[in-house]
Write a structure and sequence with these properties.
This protein is of the alpha/beta class. Helix content is 37%, strand content 13%. Strand 5, helix 7 and strand 6 form a beta-alpha-beta unit. The chain binds pyridoxal-5'-phosphate (PLP).
Length: 405
Amino acid sequence: MPDLDPRPRDAADPLAAHRAHFVGAGSPLVYLDGNSLGRPLAVTADRLAGFVREEWGGRLIRGWDEGWMELPTSLGDRIGGVLLGAAPGQLAVGDSTTVWLYKLLRAAVDAQLARDPARTEIVVDTDNFPTDRYVAEGVAAERGCTVRWVEVDPTGGLTPELLAPAVGERTAVVLLSHVAYRSGHLADVGRLTAVAHAAGALLLLDVCHSAGSVPVALDQWQVDLAAGCTYKYLDGGPGSPAFGYVAARHHGVLTQPIQGWMGHAEPFAMGPGYRPAPGIRGFVSGTPPVLGMLAVQDMLDLLEEVGVAAVRAKSVAITEYVVELADAWLAPLGVRLGSPRDPAARGGHVTLLHPRMREVVARLWEGDVLPDYRDPGGLRIGLSPLSTSFAEAHEGMLQVRRLLG
Ligand SMILES: *Cc1c(COP(=O)(O)O)cnc(C)c1O
């Protein structure tokens, strides 16, 4: 029997001290859903209040010239540099992930159709996040294209071996998630991009479940386009805006469909006719959501200080711990692992399968233990590395064992 005591693990965790800087860390609540909505940092409360009093309240309309207008690209550059391996000038913040997926997928499909009208297929895996699948269906319907579904094991995810036979001279775009929202499967994006490119396709990557948790190297992997949200591992708060990435080689070639004044080359000329701004600015549509971009700056500061490599090391250690607990306590009760067993093939969450998990999660929530539930029968344990302790994971797993036992 392995030693399952959380205390030596917390004592040996080099990131343990950061947990105290999150709101609510001192309460007995067990939070295992930081991959859906991250806990706020305590400094964020001060930043938000200060912003209302001083910047919004004091600077008023002048604020737009004093940094707000540049926030979509200045914050985008920071997210790209700290978390995504992206050189400056390729990211912008705004809209929701869904809207970015639509804009980027439309841009990519249109560019491919213009190059070769036979490229009418959008390739998506059957276990991709619902919004990704629905946006693909919508863009396909709009452009006379079809979605080509790649069947994947819901406890795993899309691999180069599964993708290769699905792409070819009819493929326009491959749309995939870096970390699968259900299983936590971590895609080998470098190899998947090579498979897509060899078939002449573009690759659009959803990094919602990896940004801030798993190292991402968009430039190195030659990813064409990407989108992700800031309210999961980036702790930006409910509904905080998303970001979009367009590789520099596509600037001036790809054009997006929501032609708003903020993406115009001269927004304040207010002239006739749309003319896109050069670079990533041309992918912005409307007024920057400044309030929604405040909290994420605090989390970025922390992630930059700590470094993504250390975050990933903690993430691997704590997900491994949960798998060990599941093997020891829950497997005898009929629970199966719904995530890859190899930590190198897994992101920051672990899914445990049992037919009674829906009821178990409802009971856990009543007792202030907050994991997530995903059909069919999946208890999803999100382990946000900077705000979750081994003791917290241990307590949550104890409660699951109690309810199933
Ligand atoms: C959370 C998540 C989204 C969310 O999209 P919104 O537009 O913010 O609702 C999209 N894709 C994936 C993979 C996600 O995990």
